[in-house]
Amino acid sequence: MNTGIVNQSLAAVRREPSESSEMINQLLFGEMFTILESYKSWLRIISINDTYEGWLDSKLTDIIPDELTAKHKSPSIPNALFSAKKNGSKYPIKLCPGSSIYGYENSHFIAGSSTYECVNNPFSESKENLNEEIVRITKQFINSPYLWGGRSPYGIDCSGLTQVVFKIIGLSIPRDAGQQVMFGETVDFINMVQPGDLAFFDNDEEIITHVGIIIDNGKIIHSSGYVKIESLDHQGIFNIESQKYSHKLRVIKRIL
């Protein structure tokens, strides 16, 4: 089976091979996938990063030649918004934090069979402490609108936020909140939380429906309407405007 790569800023992964079909996920620039089948201009793919399946428009992708496979093994993961020019193009492409770039050296990198040159630095100064770095990265997404299936500052859902943030610091977690809750160690008491812990929330049927990143004792960043900081206690997320709990806390997990 062929291996492909996304060569645009974002690529919608859809439930069916149609532009009007529901977007169930997004792949960021440089993320790779295995092609399972094709239909007209569409590819049914499985993401190499998290084994998520769906349909991609082939116009947003490139096939990785066999001779370049070895050069796409260990990507660098930018932690900032940046732009890069493809060789031969006058206009840069805007790329998101969490994208994957390969063979990065002296502001140049490859993706698929193309070479790119960065217009600005894809790496902002990071903190040595991973817990603090998670908080710093997550805050970059504040005020990003909620988008079902989204994984970028231009639109992101709750589990897309947690997945991309952890990808940037070098940790791979699954795509959906119901899968992410299976990872890490349980934090038994809310007064024992650390920055970077994940808080999971369920509905009346006890199904995990939401996740956010704890930034300190009593505060959480999550995507609900838009990415924001709200108060968290042993009951859940408390919305100051409505003076009500918007999400019921189920469990806190520590990935780091």
Summarize the helices and strands and which ones pair or pack.
Blueprint: E1 3-6, E2 10-14, E3 23-28, E4 32-39, E5 42-47, E6 53-57, E7 61-63, E8 82-86, E9 93-95, E10 102-105, E11 108-111, E12 114-118, H1 130-139, E13 151-152, E14 155-156, H2 158-168, H3 177-180, E15 185-186, E16 198-202, E17 208-216, E18 219-224, E19 226-232, E20 236-239, E21 244-254
Antiparallel strand pairs: 1-4, 1-7, 2-3, 4-5, 5-6, 8-9, 8-12, 10-11, 11-12, 13-14, 15-21, 16-17, 16-21, 17-18, 18-19, 19-20, 20-21
**Gyration radius over CA:** 19 Å
Task: Give the CATH architecture of the largest domain.
Answer: Alpha-Beta Complex
Please give the count of helices: 3
Q: Superfamily at the CATH H level of the largest domain?
A: endopeptidase domain like (from Nostoc punctiforme)
Q: Based on the structure, what is the oligomeric state of the protein chains?
A: single chain
> Unreliable runs, pLDDT <50, ≥5 residues?
none
Mean pLDDT: 96
Largest sheet: 6 strands, antiparallel, barrel
Order of helices and strands: EEEEEEEEEEEEHEEHHEEEEEEE
Kindly report the CATH topology of the largest domain: endopeptidase fold (from Nostoc punctiforme)
CA distance, first residue to last residue: 35 Å
Secondary-structure-based class equals mainly beta
Number of domains: 2
Give a count of the beta strands, DSSP E runs of length 2 or more. 21
Percentage of residues in strands: 35-45%
Q: Could you estimate the helical fraction of the residues in percent? A: under 10%
| CATH class descriptor name of the largest domain | Alpha Beta
Strands ordered across the widest β-sheet: 16-17-18-19-20-21
Query: What would the principal axes of the Cα set say about the shape?
Result: globular
